[in-house]
């Protein structure tokens, strides 16, 4: 079964909505972002997550001190590193790590993507779309066939422009461990119950076929 990560949760209501439709991961963006949440609030919400649902702290080039503070504050946290973190830094993190690898929206090179993934052998990989200097949240897809071989060899998350309308095609092309959505389940910058339900249902429907 394909796991679901609902990212950019900024309130208890967002998390309850994600849980209602079966998400296994809820993302708290602690890096600069329009969806940034304070660590204190993220930690309070995460304390009430049921077994089998994991909080993911989304960070960009954190300091070691900030990272240690987050690991102490949020129970069972997994760390998503979406910046230019080195393999040595990633390997030193004491919590489970999801390392973002950004794939060009066009003309993505399979060999280049594989080499980048190989630098982070200790982490799960999250593929997101590379647009300019952005570290994510572009709302655009990338050529999924670029990562299909890597997804057959290790557990990967796929992000970047996913919606209820295209997530089934993504899963069919990649067979990822998990899919990750933020803006694709929002309306006017807020989590939309109808879109969250539709996205999660689309994932479950394709898994059942």
What's the arrangement of secondary structure elements?
Elements: E1 3-6, H1 12-20, E2 25-29, H2 39-46, E3 54-59, H3 64-73, E4 78-81, H4 87-92, E5 97-104, H5 110-118, E6 124-130, H6 148-153, E7 156-158, H7 167-174, E8 178-181, E9 186-187, E10 190-191, H8 193-208
Overview of this structure, please?
- Helix 7 packs parallel to helix 8 (193-208).
- With 209 residues, this protein is of the alpha/beta class.
- It contains eight helices and ten strands.
- The chain has helices at 12-20, 39-46, 64-73, 87-92, 110-118, 148-153, 167-174, 193-208, and strands at residues 3-6, 25-29, 54-59, 78-81, 97-104, 124-130, 156-158, 178-181, 186-187, 190-191.
- The longest helix has 16 residues, at 193-208.
- It has one domain (3-208): Aldolase class I (TIM Barrel), CATH 3.20.20.
In short:
The protein is α/β, with parallel strands linked by helices. The protein contains eight helices and ten strands. The chain has a single domain (3-208), classed as TIM Barrel (Alpha-Beta Barrel).
């Amino acid at each position: 079964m394909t796991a679901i990560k609902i990212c950019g949760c900024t309130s208890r209501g967002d998390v309850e909505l994600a849980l209602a439709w079966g998400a296994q991961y809820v993302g708290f963006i602690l890096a600069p972002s329009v969806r940034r949440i304070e660590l204190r609030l993220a930690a309070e919400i995460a304390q009430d997550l049921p077994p089998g649902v994991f909080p993911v702290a989304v960070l960009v080039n954190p300091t070691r001190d900030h990272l240690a503070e987050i690991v102490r504050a949020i129970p069972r946290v997994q760390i998503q590193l979406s910046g230019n973190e080195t393999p040595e830094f990633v390997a030193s993190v004491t919590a489970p790590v999801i390392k973002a690898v950004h794939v060009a929206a066009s003309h993505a090179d399979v060999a280049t993507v594989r080499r980048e993934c190989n630098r982070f052998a200790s982490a799960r990989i999250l593929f997101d779309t590379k647009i300019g200097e952005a570290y994510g949240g572009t709302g655009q897809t990338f050529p999924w066939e670029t990562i299909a071989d890597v997804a057959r060899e290790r557990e990967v998350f796929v992000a970047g422009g996913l919606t209820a309308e295209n997530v089934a095609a993504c899963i069919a092309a990649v067979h990822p461990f998990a899919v990750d959505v933020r803006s694709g389940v929002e309306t006017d910058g807020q989590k939309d119950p109808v879109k969250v339900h539709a996205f999660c249902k689309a994932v479950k429907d394709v898994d059942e076929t």
